[in-house]
């Protein structure tokens, strides 16, 4: 499997991303979610000294890691602390009017998930934060303690298809009358109580009972669907003719948004799709990198 040696980080679907995005020497490549620069380092290898790699991320801590990983790149590297919803502005600042390859690998990185202090994980106790971008003002704790019961239920159902959203929202609203819910551990216990689960880790269920609640809250805090919609809307006007866009999604709500957008653009003869179905990881990658199991890559070519 392809690995980026300097960080030891293995990005998902590395071969498929490189093959389908087909970076050429001298291209302008945008990695809209540069993260730990796993994909970016691979794409940069194909760029040569004339090429430009622009890496965006909302998380300055990940940008610092990306900077080290990409330090030895031959290509011009521009790392920008920005949301990909602001991509046109970021490119205008860099005086880069057209993009040849645009990649977005959605969601959170392992560094964010594994750091209990960031509040993304139901496996580590920590503050109920979940902001990828420290400039954001509203945390998961603000939503859990401040939203009306119906709105909280909608956040869990619409963003993460949590079918027990009403029961969980009701329980949260009852508990918070006795004081603010401020930690991930407390929220996990409330979810388990709402679902009558004594020990979440002893269950044979495929996913932890808090998975969807945490996903729904994270998506709301970081406005992930609105940001993805903005990126999808802006992409056709940023891509050069024959330019390629690849999006990797990890759950059905995101993947559906990409699928519908690409299908509409195909009808309008703006995009041609490289594959009818999304690209998924093969057995060896799924075994070696559990994160790859839910990854779906869709790629389109700008006509
Ligand atoms: C799955 S990781 C990307 C991993 C990367 N492809 C690699 O190989 O290391 C997603 C990254 O996107 C960032 N991110 C999420 N939403 C973003 C947005 N709207 N704009 C810019 N960056 C975003 C996160 O902070 C995180 O670092």
Question: What labels would you give this structure?
Answer:
7 strands; 15% strand; alpha/beta; 42% helix; disordered N terminus; 7-stranded mixed sheet; elongated
Write a compact overview of the structure shown:
The chain is 42% helix and 15% strand. It has 303 residues and is α/β, with parallel strands linked by helices. α2 links the parallel β1 (28-31) and β2 (52-57).
Helix and strand topology:
Elements: H1 14-21, E1 28-31, H2 38-45, E2 52-57, H3 60-69, E3 76-81, H4 87-93, E4 99-105, H5 110-114, H6 140-146, H7 149-160, H8 165-176, H9 184-194, H10 211-221, H11 224-238, E5 239-249, H12 252-267, E6 271-273, H13 283-288, E7 296-302
Question: What does this protein look like?
Answer:
The chain is an alpha/beta fold and 303 residues long. It folds into two domains: 14-109 and 224-302, Vaccinia Virus protein VP39 (Rossmann fold), CATH 3.40.50.150; 137-221, Putative methyltransferase TM0872, insert domain (DNA polymerase, domain 1, Orthogonal Bundle). It has helices at 14-21, 38-45, 60-69, 87-93, 110-114, 140-146, 149-160, 165-176, 184-194, 211-221, 224-238, 252-267, 283-288, and strands at residues 28-31, 52-57, 76-81, 99-105, 239-249, 271-273, 296-302. It is built from 13 helices and seven strands. The protein starts with 13 loop residues before the first helix and ends with a strand. Helix 7 runs antiparallel to helix 8 (165-176) and helix 7 packs across helix 10. Mean pLDDT is 95; it is low at 1-6. The radius of gyration is 20 Å and the shape is elongated. 42% of the residues lie in helices and 15% in strands. A seven-stranded mixed sheet has the order 3-2-1-4-5-7-6, sandwiched between helices.
